[in-house]
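STRUCTURE:
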């Protein structure tokens, strides 16, 4: 998959909104999605075509649920 500006903007949207919901920094969410897992590449970019068509609440909750399944949230 080629990652362009729209995918990067979507990833930033996801990171910032997950951070807000979890009440942690965007930097911490980014680290959890990239250094403690490969969720950013495999899930957020990998499922962009489906995810970006969903509502904000669904996207945020889905990513958090996936993070829990992968064990990246303490």
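SEQUENCE:
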């Amino acid at each position: 998959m080629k990652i362009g500006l729209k995918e990067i903007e979507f990833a930033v949207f996801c990171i910032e909104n997950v951070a807000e919901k979890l009440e942690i920094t965007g930097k911490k969410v980014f680290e959890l999605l990239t250094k403690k897992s490969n969720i950013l590449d495999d899930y957020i970019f990998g499922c962009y075509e489906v995810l970006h068509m969903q509502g904000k609440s669904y996207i945020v909750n889905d990513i958090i649920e996936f993070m829990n399944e992968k064990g990246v949230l303490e």
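REMARK: The CA atoms of residues 44 and 50 lie 10 Å apart.
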